[in-house]
Fold these 3 entries.
Entry 1:
Amino acid sequence: MPPSRFLDRSSPPHIMSLVAIAGLSALTMNIFLPSLPAMAKDLSVDYDRVQVLVSGYIAMTALVQLIIGPLSDRYGRRPVMLGALAILLLASLVCMMAHSIELLTAARMAQTAVVAGLVLSRAIIRDMVPVEEAASMIGYVTMGMTLVPMVGPTVGGLLSDALGWRASFAAIAVAGLLVLLLVCHDLGETNHRKSSSFTAQFRAWPGLLASGRFWAFTLAATFTSGAFFAFLGGAPFVGGTLMGMTPSVLGLQFMFIASGYIAGNFLSGRYARRAGIEAMMLIGGVVALIGVALPIVLFAQGVTTALAFFAPQIIVGFGNGLSLPSANAGIVSVRPELAGSASGLGGAITMGGGAFVSWLASAILSVETGAMPLLLVMVACCLLAMIAIGWLWWSRPRPSGDAR
């Protein structure tokens, strides 16, 4: 494959373009989180109705990924990405003007088209480089991408305080337009082995689903990221309702988990090729488990401050940053010729699990229970991730070459 040349769509995309399309997906998911209590008040609904904009969004991205991957394997990465960005722009404009929770929810679900940025950035990387290098490159892309959601809730909180919650959706629309222009001029097609038909991709799913290693990588990614999705679902209630934080102050708390994530991704980018993807996943899983256990210990000792809850999330984010790039590289490398479909199917399972734990974390929280139920959900996710990683080590190909 020819080397990447920036703003030359006859060559593979520049790494910064991959960061931009993946970062936009993350920004769309979390920029408005500090505004959830204000949205509930403005639309005269209970908090659980607006929380669907988080858990429902995650669930819908699972469904969208089932289509995005096969579409890109059949028609190419570039046209699918352009179409997804166009849908995002239209949906964001509707979100800005919505005056009912029903219309806002429908438009929010349409915004999930932007998940193409996450799916296709991984598939494009796998088109360009082999598996160990893919884990390293995904780590760097995710590290750069994380800069966007790290500041997203903070910016969203400031916009909400100054201009109201609708300003967050205006920011998504502006960012989407800028990324669309970048994609038009830089995202060269990398899928030069297009499938013969769209349905052929779905017929390939049984082969993926029958692979123990596909499931091991996918479940490791699902439960590792599950701790993060549980945090997304419950943290706005913990910070905004239990601790009385304003949207802007609450937005700042998300920088703990995001800054840890970017540090983990940096080290993954540096060392995944050398250490191997299984080792990076194991180390990351242990680190994340320690990060979740710390606030549980502090809360058990009666230390229930905001700092005791939010600060240890930097360790959780660091562990996720070490693990997830390698897990995602493993998912798209089980069947390299079906990288798009594998990315979409694996991402759908991951997001489906994330939607469930996000809903669960918010559903079991109350003023009476405090933040402990959320922490227990997060630690359960980390333990299940360790089991999946152990399964991955057990299913490694034997020296003779036969994989169980």
Entry 2:
Amino acid sequence: MAEDRFLLKDATLFDAIGLRRVDIRLEKGVVSEMGVGLLPGVGEEMINCDGLLVAPSFIDLHTHLREPGGEEAETFLSGSIAAAAGGYCRVVAMPNTEPVPDSLGVIDEIRGRTLRLPIAIDLAASITKGRKGGEIVEITELTRRGVKVFTDDGNGVQSAMLMRRAFEASAASGAILAQHCEDESIMSGGAMNEGEIGERLGLKMISSLAETIMVARDVELCKAIGGRLHLQHISTSRAVALVSEAKGDGAFVTCEVTPHHLLLDESYVGSGKSLFKVNPPLRTIDDVDGLWRGVASGAVDVIGTDHAPHPRWKKDLPFESAAFGMVGIEESLSASFLGARRFMGRNPGYLPKLSVGTIDVEELRPPQISVEEFLWLLKLVELLSLGPRRLLRLPNDPIAEGMKADLVVIDPSVKRVISNESIWSKSKNSPYLGMELPLAIRHNIVNGRMIVRDRCVEVERYWR
């Protein structure tokens, strides 16, 4: 296969030092030259990026790929194709599979399945053996063998004493403990958020206290013992406040929010559609705004998709009986940006703080969006791209000559109506079906290969 050689012309590049206009030449999987006024060489394809935003490709800390054991819903190949379509170059696969990756032997066997895929897949190991909550895995040993994230996602670790031991191992090894924040003793088999809408629908409900109690407990454990705590898919304004306080106290506490919790609220459940059943549940509009304030302030570190594919027979059921979860990795940026627009409408003038240097937004913004919208777009890209790199301790330097060519090209001018046919994931349980979403991933270049070109994944070229 011929080597991919590209010149990204007139790119507005956003990376770890900020925003700038530059031409970027890509050869042999790396950035070979950067400058202004570069011309394409012989056999080199020029990609016009005028009016588009270029950034390091995204990383997801929270993806369910279902393999092994759940291939009816998703596979490593189908899930990585969907992730590539969403602008990702790497994902962390959750361990609620069969078998559970809780030992080196199982992890090595599963890792063998993740080679030669569109993107990189890191395996998260479980915190407890079999995800049963009874005995912690060999965290220190597995960390030495390359595992960075440990989680029982799908269930929170209920035992405070067991979690204390996990923090001791995290403090010694540097492992990330990613906690699913729910105290099961007060969940009561609920299906949606506790409140007036749930009462009106007659559904069993999940109190926000289930999240608050688990967050508060683990924050205190992290403060007392050390280690690295990452709170998965927080959904309440109270959780944001607890995270912000913990950061102020110097604890190594980070958190993620999902695109669906940034866009949707509990009123969507009123439709009765099980596509809106997710765990943690969609919360109140006040909680949604609380999450956005956490995004703006820096309390929220990353956007994690919690991409959770299910076959139709698990979702086409009455709401209480249907499986929790929704797909969304392909639309993570678009759904989050629509959520930002709605938040701006409710809170005029509320703008985010960026963690990068000074930015001349007025001069470099794409003409299709306002200055305020562009600031929010940059913040979302920061949480999808730069934030995950910080947490995983991956290279997070500005794009420069000699660097690996993982770049996403974002088109701010596009609007799309989401349909079954537009979803690359093997499962179609998307809450965005029928919705018009803004923005699109125009191109995604991973390891120097353009695996998404003009919004289409190049499956035939690379993987069949």
Entry 3:
Amino acid sequence: MTSTSAIDLTALLAPGLPPPAVRWTGFAKYNFVGGHNDPSFVPVDSLIEASTTVLRREGQTLATYGLNSGPLGYRPLRDFLAAKLKGHAGISCSSDDILITSGSLQAMDLVNGVFLARGDTVLIEQETYGGALTRLARLGVNAVGIPLDQEGLRMDALESALSEHKRRGVRPKFIYTIPTVQNPTGTIMGAERRAQLLRLSRAHGVPIFEDECYSDLIWSGERPPALYAMAQGQGVVHIGSFSKSVAPALRVGYIVAGWDILSRILALKTDAGSGALEQMVLAEFCRAHFAAHVPTLARGLRAKLETLMEALREQFGTAAEFDDPKGGIFLWVKLPDTVDTLKLAQAALAAGVALNPGPEWSTDKAYSRCRLRLCYANLEPAAIREGVATLAEVCRREFGVPSRIANVAHPQGR
């Protein structure tokens, strides 16, 4: 006789899984978290046109995995990237040095997959992308944070860490860095410091993992060459994304590496290829519109950043400290040492404001305790002002900071 009792599936789950996800109930009213972009700058009409054009011309290639372009990804998109990376970042590579991935997160997982084993050590910026930190933790990798300054990774601290690890007989697997529009600080590493970084990398035999997901969004439009370019591809693996320059939901990223490494990465990418439609549409769109689209997007984001910084000055006064980032979609803010941003985030969320507390973006939890990251790209200017005003009210109630709300009209009354 068959039992009718239900099987407890949770009792059969594999050990070592991350905590369960929280059920999504919608975005907060004032959503300053994540890497969302400005919906008004998603080039919808141009994407529709590109979709129609490329599907009419090449739609039958959807019958084959890889669109007749092979496992590295849709060749017209790789051709565009090779030209774009040459003009934008100084990278000389061929289309066959580029692997298209399902967003830069898959690119990161693949790079980690070929280099890292449990117990390994990597050197990483002290304040960095939270997703990189969580991935390293799940892999059982020792992530050693290197302090930053207003030009990014500090070379004196990096040299000291490399020398100390060498003395102990530990060779870090790589140095992970976001040198061009750093996340969360928005800094850009200068050319001379990049040269210093490459010299240290070579002297200690430790490669560099270069993450350039935000490098298209630079206010001035000017940047130093990529580390990959300066190293002529030797000892550097480079990743990037279209998430911030076109649309995050498209989930298209890429890896640039020599074939000795790319061939090993490709062997791990067993998903039968990243989404074909996204690649086809992006290639068609980018060929005609990318060069004009990105500066327009950057101007719109800069205006929103100005709104956020003005609102913070109005509502927090000198209690909120921040540098003016050189690009991107984030502002890294320091509040007085008495503020615990993990607790602030919980109280703010109850009031409709979502923010990223600093400890989630740092290897030094004590240093980042009073810091937070705000994404300003997705909200409209009025909502940015309202959200900051609400955040100030919550912070004052919970921590007495600011000591008084600035004497300005409440944004909701404007």
